[in-house]
């Protein structure tokens, strides 16, 4: 329970998982810094704190490399949301999610929500090639995006779209239905009722970190969805005598632990 | 007075370390198989085995054997031997021819040299008879790996070296190739070109290794006209360097060792041995995928940073009061299981603090610090975040992981980096809290702006005309028993401002270093008149010094200059080096240890194995 002793205490934890080179770091970088640049293969995991309204959301960008596989469950401990990322041009990256990464989420919260994200959509989908910022200010755009682009991600384009004005499109190896099917399997793996859970249409995204397509929508949808979890956690804390764990830092985590269990 | 004819003096041949048991015919066979690998691929081409001598060392220190001409006197040898020299002079070309089929067959069985692809043959020919090589257009066109194609289209910088056509001349012309393969001959890493395209080349390398091994020998190196091939076997890994840099075999082997350590730092020695015990032909690239950048970065550093050559760390000059105050800040921000706190600016050390009890009589080795610095350099992708990653310090303990917390203190500039090493996998939040304390204290003391002013110094500050550059490495400073080995060196300034000139100076230093540390005839003092500068290297029981003067300096001048330089360094010592490495204690202090983690020290030190497979 060392996370309870943190000063700027994150209210909720979001974890990015997925095979190497699917673009986890790029997605986060796009969202946090509004930029796309070459990234270097992540070592271990990188921790980011995002201010979301009055809440602190911690985001763990993990390494996709098998080398760091052993750490995955540690990063996932107590997560409220897990973003399972794959590359739409690489079927294997979707398969890896099920094979390697799903089991890591065993340590996540029982009410953890899962999002399936197919990145690099710009390589297969001309719509994803237009930067969302092209129309106006990024701020306005993000507001629009929060509602709008869910539609294209929900009803995915057919894989074969060979003609494109902006040149060579790659073959799309992972169709939206495949992701939705995997989402269903994830729910079953978690023993969650499909009806009681968030629908696949809402939780499967296709994004492009390169153009920014759907990126804000992804993170902001998730953040909105984890809010209830934050509120509940705060509420639980309010009921307990330890309102703010910061006051008890000197005493130690033992005390804090006993109060929340 | 020594002359710069080192290269002509290098005997050419294959050097094998031979256990004391008497001679055996394997060297003959090796030489022929070497040439035959070439012949096999290029039937109509005469392999210049006359430029190759097989050398077998009874002992590493004795540099010569039966037939080879290298005398301890180190006199310049004739540039190349006219006669084919293969161990005992009796091997003749006709014999080679006869044995050809048999040997190649043997090789196929013995090792993973299955498909005698032309690029592998070409490679050996290149090594052995570069001068005679003819382009035959037989190469395997750079087969790009499906693994690599999978997901990195968007970062061409990343794949540039990996994509190289390994049959092209430009590939062969790289100054220094490094290959890593498993004992089963499986490619693990190549500095240039994709491992897949090079699998047959690596197969040949493995064939050489196992061929020599089959007669209870160890292959150490192969010399040719322009290239030195150095082999290093470490556990289940084989590392090979093919270099035209004219460095000594020892230096090249040292560099391979750094590569090995970097791999260990990512996977640990224990898990590598475990993996290969279970599965001999495991593809280690699965675990190293994505780490190529780190190895590439290391090799670039090894080529451009003398720290590796000197096996010492370079710290940023700081007034001792500032360094002390930084150390105190680090000392106050501790948490259980924290063992090292390291502050780095501009890729140089500011200060290192270590836990007292854990490291009672061990010290952090320079090589481990180099690996950490390289890791930071290669992982600075995204600076706002706080990185938490397992890392093994191979010289500290090759089988266990530390957990490294890496964070920049001055975003967005990202020049000042904090590195905290803990033995507890779960300690991220506690360690991150230390960072916040450090940050607060540094704001209060305005440390960041003071650090920003710190910079390396100019050689002109020494006030010795004719002195262009130097590297000074003191051995254990008396009041600092068992301190981290450090060295100091000014900026490289004109005429060494261009990359080529910097490299040229470093090459000269490497040459001096190789003479000083020669296994056959080590030297204490070298005065070396090179084409465009004069160098003087001097090693005593107290220090190792390399100096570079303008070409017209006289010997007397140089000696006087060095006396002045040593006096200047003595005066500036407090600023140039970390003098008093501070220690802290996380355990015996009851007020501290009551806080947070209850996990006991012993348990957490070895909980670090990554679950593999």
Automatic annotation (TrEMBL), chain A:
It is an enzyme of class 3 (hydrolase). This is Ras-related protein Rab-20. Belongs to the small GTPase superfamily. Rab family. It is found in: Cytoplasmic vesicle membrane; Cytoplasmic vesicle, Phagosome membrane; Golgi apparatus. Residues 125-168 are annotated as: Disordered. It catalyses: GTP + H2O = GDP + phosphate + H(+). GO terms for cellular component: Golgi apparatus; phagocytic vesicle membrane.
TrEMBL record, chain B:
Residues 467-573 form the FUZ/MON1/HPS1 third Longin domain. Residues 68-80 have a biased composition (Acidic residues). GO terms for cellular component: Mon1-Ccz1 complex. One of its GO terms (biological process) is protein targeting to vacuole. Signal peptide: none annotated. Residues 1-10, 53-63 have a biased composition (Basic and acidic residues). Residues 337-438 form the FUZ/MON1/HPS1 second Longin domain. It holds the Pfam family Fuz_longin_2. Residues 21-36 have a biased composition (Polar residues). Residues 176-298 form the FUZ/MON1/HPS1 first Longin domain. Residues 1-118, 585-613 are annotated as: Disordered. Plays an important role in membrane trafficking through the secretory apparatus. Belongs to the MON1/SAND family. This is Vacuolar fusion protein MON1 homolog. It comes from Menidia menidia.
């Amino acid at each position: 329970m060392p996370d309870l002793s943190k000063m700027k205490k994150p209210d909720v934890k979001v974890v990015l998982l997925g095979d190497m080179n699917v673009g986890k770091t790029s997605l986060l970088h796009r969202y946090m810094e509004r930029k796309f640049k070459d990234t270097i293969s992540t070592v271990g995991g990188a921790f980011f704190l995002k201010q979301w309204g009055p809440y602190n959301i911690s985001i763990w960008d993990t390494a996709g490399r098998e080398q760091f596989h052993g750490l995955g469950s540690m990063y996932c401990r107590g997560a409220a949301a897990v973003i399972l990322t794959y590359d739409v041009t690489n079927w294997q990256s979707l398969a890896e999610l099920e094979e390697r990464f799903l089991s890591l989420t065993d340590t996540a919260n029982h009410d953890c929500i899962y999002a399936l994200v197919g990145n690099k959509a710009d390589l297969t989908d001309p719509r994803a090639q237009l930067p969302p910022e092209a129309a106006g200010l990024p701020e306005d755009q993000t507001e629009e995006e929060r509602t709008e682009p869910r539609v294209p991600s929900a009803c995915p384009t057919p894989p074969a779209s060979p003609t494109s004005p902006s040149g060579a499109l790659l073959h799309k190896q992972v169709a939206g239905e495949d992701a939705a099917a995997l989402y269903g399997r994830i729910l079953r793996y978690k023993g969650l009722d499909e009806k009681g859970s968030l629908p696949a249409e809402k939780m499967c995204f296709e994004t492009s970190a390169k153009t920014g397509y759907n990126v804000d929508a992804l993170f902001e949808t998730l953040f909105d969805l984890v809010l209830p979890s934050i509120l509940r956690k705060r509420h639980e804390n309010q009921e307990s005598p330890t309102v703010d764990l910061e006051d008890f830092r000197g005493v130690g985590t033992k005390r804090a632990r006993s109060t929340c269990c | 007075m020594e002359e710069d004819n080192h290269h002509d003096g290098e005997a050419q041949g294959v050097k094998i370390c031979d256990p004391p048991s008497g001679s055996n015919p394997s060297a003959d066979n090796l030489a022929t198989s070497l040439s035959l690998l070439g012949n096999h691929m290029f039937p109509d081409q005469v392999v210049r085995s006359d430029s190759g001598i097989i050398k077998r060392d009874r002992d590493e220190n004795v540099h010569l054997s039966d037939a080879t001409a290298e005398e301890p006197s180190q006199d310049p040898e004739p540039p190349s031997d006219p006669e084919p020299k293969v161990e005992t002079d009796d091997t003749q070309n006709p014999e080679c021819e006869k044995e050809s089929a048999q040997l190649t067959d043997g090789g196929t069985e013995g090792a993973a040299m299955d498909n005698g692809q032309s690029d592998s043959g070409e490679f050996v020919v290149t090594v052995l008879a570069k001068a005679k090589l003819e382009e035959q257009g037989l190469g395997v066109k750079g087969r790009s790996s499906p693994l690599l194609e999978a997901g990195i289209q968007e970062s061409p910088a990343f794949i540039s070296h990996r994509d190289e056509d390994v049959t092209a001349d430009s590939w062969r012309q790289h100054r220094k190739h490094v290959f890593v393969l498993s004992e089963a001959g499986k490619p693990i890493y190549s500095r240039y070109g994709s491992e897949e395209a090079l699998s047959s080349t690596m197969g040949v390398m493995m064939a050489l290794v196992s061929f020599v091994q089959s007669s209870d020998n160890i292959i150490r190196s192969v010399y040719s006209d322009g290239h030195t091939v150095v082999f290093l076997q470490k556990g289940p890994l084989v590392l090979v360097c093919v270099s035209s840099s004219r460095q000594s075999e020892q230096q090249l082997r040292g560099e391979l060792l750094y590569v090995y350590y970097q791999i260990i730092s990512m996977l640990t020695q224990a898990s590598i041995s475990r993996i290969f015990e279970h599965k001999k032909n495991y593809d280690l690239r699965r675990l190293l995928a994505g780490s190529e950048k780190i190895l590439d970065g290391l090799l670039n550093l090894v080529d451009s940073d003398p720290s590796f050559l000197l096996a010492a760390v370079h710290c940023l000059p700081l007034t001792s009061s500032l360094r002390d105050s930084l150390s105190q800040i680090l000392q106050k921000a501790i948490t259980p299981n924290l063992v090292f706190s390291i502050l780095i600016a501009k890729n140089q050390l500011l200060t290192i603090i270590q836990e007292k009890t854990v490291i009672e009589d061990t010290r952090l080795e320079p090589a481990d610090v180099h690996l950490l610095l390289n890791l930071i350099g290669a992982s600075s992708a995204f600076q706002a975040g706080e990185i938490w990653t397992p890392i093994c310090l191979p010289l500290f303990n090759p089988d266990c992981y530390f957990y490294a917390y890496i964070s920049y203190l001055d975003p967005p500039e990202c020049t000042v980096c904090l590195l905290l090493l803990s033995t507890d996998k779960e300690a991220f939040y506690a360690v991150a809290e230390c960072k916040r304390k450090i940050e607060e204290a540094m704001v209060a003391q305005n440390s960041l702006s003071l650090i920003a002013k710190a910079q390396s110094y100019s050689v002109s500050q020494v006030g010795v005309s004719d002195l262009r550059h130097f590297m000074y490495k003191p051995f254990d400073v008396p009041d600092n028993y068992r301190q981290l080995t450090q060295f100091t060196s000014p900026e490289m300034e004109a005429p060494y401002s261009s990359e080529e000139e910097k490299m040229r100076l470093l090459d000269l230093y490497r040459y001096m270093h190789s003479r000083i540390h020669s296994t056959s005839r080590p030297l204490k003092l070298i005065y070396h008149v090179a084409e465009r500068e004069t160098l003087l290297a001097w090693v005593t029981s107290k220090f190792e010094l390399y100096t570079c003067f303008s070409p017209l300096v006289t010997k007397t001048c140089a000696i006087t200059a060095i006396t002045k330089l040593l006096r200047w360094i003595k005066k500036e010592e407090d600023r140039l080096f970390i003098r008093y490495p501070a220690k802290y204690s996380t355990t015996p202090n009851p007020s501290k240890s009551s806080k947070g983690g209850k996990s006991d020290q012993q348990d957490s030190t070895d909980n670090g194995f990554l679950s593999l497979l």
